[in-house]
């Protein structure tokens, strides 16, 4: 087998294949007037391939990756749920798919209505006074939020408040965003039951406290039961409360962060609201905030606004899909989606409790974290992740949250039918049994993928992003 079963398109081409001689075929066209990108002289060095070669090449490439349309993708923290085809149908409408921000205003009235309704709906479900849909991803929503927190502190004459508290259950993007905005991060350990205790926060509340960033439910899937008490204490210390809302899928219609202590929160439309994600985007990370932060919200530069975070309207293609999903489900449906997400995760938790080691017995919501502690023969989380691929599943999230040694983080989402959950439980049981009975099979897994165990560290450090002719490669 080749290391990579599909050659790059540059290797498929041949000078004997004529392609389509654009200028010769259209003598009326003045070559110099064509956009440079499609002029024959701009295409020098490009691969000459038949249309069928192109179609087959990309179709074959599209089958090499695992995707949610192929099977269950229980990647904890990422909420890889089914993206309803209805969303795609509506987003594919020419009026929506081909719109441009420079269209005359009357042509954009429907788009504006969709964006206003989306912002209103997000505000309603989260309990915040206002929503900005500008940020392009969850992490950019965080950054927008901490910029706004900083502007608010400065407006109060509290520029000296620089310390941002962040529990050890936080996503890595939280401290990154806070540091980029100029805050100093201070990590707080969560309690023995996996949630952050008020008593562990209080000793940190000096005059230098800018605020806290709390993921709720946290990255263990556990509800932060001291959330409101902690928020009150932070507010009393003159700080602000940021809630990481990436796990909003667990709480729609259950509780409203804007009403129980959070000042600002980001959403991930590409997690909770079924806009596609993976492969690096596009995403969308709107933020909800209460009225005291409204003057600082992203806008055209000027006044107290922190300025623009994204050109034009933001990620329009995601807005229309999320809007469609919310319209299709309604408030009741969103609430049911969260209840089902919690039910599915707890069904898996129950089914796997005796098979994998459960480090926290505290009740969990939409995801559950196990560990590799009881695997036979010294096998580790990575081995389960690799072998489960042969059984037709994407691996769960591994080694995250980092506070849990050998973490295996599973989030099935509400869109998996019970039959699939049962299949997954059976597959995990089989892999753990194989660790004892066929250790070699597990050690060399996966056996069914185009590539096997890769040196991921080296791949990340020595990125090979550009194809060069063989002569130049040598
Ligand atoms: C996914 C996630 C983020 C970041 O969102 P992106 O859209 O990937 O930038 C932040 N916090 C948590 C808890 C997440 O799961």
Describe this structure in words.
The chain has 474 residues and is α/β, with parallel strands linked by helices. It folds into three domains: 9-62, no CATH class; 85-325, Aspartate Aminotransferase, domain 2 (3-Layer(aba) Sandwich); 339-460, Aspartate Aminotransferase, domain 1. 37% of the residues lie in helices and 9% in strands. It contains 17 helices and ten strands. The strands form two sheets. A seven-stranded mixed β-sheet has the order 1-7-6-5-4-2-3, with helices on both faces. The longest helix is centred in the last third of the chain and has 37 residues, at 316-352. It is globular. It starts with 8 loop residues before the first helix and ends with a helix. The model has no long low-confidence stretch (mean pLDDT 92). The protein binds pyridoxal-5'-phosphate.
Give the arrangement of secondary structure elements:
Elements: H1 9-12, H2 22-25, H3 51-62, H4 85-91, H5 94-97, H6 109-126, E1 130-132, H7 138-155, E2 163-167, H8 173-180, E3 184-188, H9 198-201, E4 209-215, H10 227-236, E5 240-244, E6 264-266, H11 269-272, E7 287-289, H12 316-352, E8 368-371, H13 381-390, E9 397-398, E10 407-410, H14 418-437, H15 439-444, H16 456-461, H17 470-473
Parallel strand pairs: 2-3, 2-4, 4-5, 5-6
Antiparallel strand pairs: 1-7, 6-7, 8-10, 9-10
Helix pairs in contact: 4-12, 6-12, 7-8, 12-14
CATH topology of the largest domain: Aspartate Aminotransferase, domain 2
Strand order of the largest sheet: 1-7-6-5-4-2-3
Cα Rg: 25 Å
Number of helices: 17
- How many structural domains does the protein architecture include? 3
Low-confidence stretches: none
Quickly give the CATH architecture of the largest domain. Answer: 3-Layer(aba) Sandwich
Percent of residues in helical segments? 25-40%
Instruction: Name every ligand kind in the structure.
Output: pyridoxal-5'-phosphate
- Strand share of the residues? 5-15%
